[in-house]
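Final report, closing paragraph on structural work. Over the funding period we assembled a curated collection of sequence-structure pairs, and we close with a single example.
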Amino acid sequence: MSIIYHDSTYLKNNPTWHEEDAPFKGGKIEELLKKHPIHFNTVCEVGCGSGEILLQLAQKYPTATQFFGFDISSDAIAIASRKATNKIQFEQKDITLAGDTSFFDLLLVIDVIEHLDDYFSFLTSIAPKSKYTIFHIPLDMCVWSLFREEMLIESKKRVGHIHNFTEGFIESILMDKGFKIIDKLYTEPTFTTVSTKQKIANLARKLLFSLHKKFCTKTIGGYSILLLTENNAFV
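Its predicted structure, as stored:
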């Protein structure tokens, strides 16, 4: 599946590289960090895509000294590089390769692991590369998706999601790989309505989420989870 990030297939399917979602995601990251007295000077986003999230965070945290964005895709880096400044650097780079000694105060892994052929090795390799890590992971596996399997197949074709997670399962994997979960919050989907049927479904999803968040993610789905972790491999 990784070929789609190198042969412009992903760019063709997602020409903005989801840049329009960055202000929302950056705001949620800030919301999570505000709840904890975590000090950081260096921030790195692995799989930075368009680079817009780092741009948003650099504006929110002017005292942080340096922001780094790495991605394996030259298409993504071509988009991100236009936003480089003295504080924000972008590079086509894979920090999981043997011999890489990168280390940062805060690592961002935003909508990445669901794309990776071997996310177990990826998590093992990044655990010693930061004090703290923030993950954003879609919770694609739910009761609704089991009955509408074509949604998962479409997601694989359009945005490259080759793994589907529930909240408890991915938390268990992260803990196994050396990430101590400090806090988490759900992030809601973008409710784009293109049909009456979808409008009804989105309304039901919002209502159920307001009543019981976790139950909603397990049944109707559509939500993601943002996790703040401390890297046990570091401490």
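The mean pLDDT is 91. The chain has one domain: 2-189+223-231. We thank the funder for supporting this effort.
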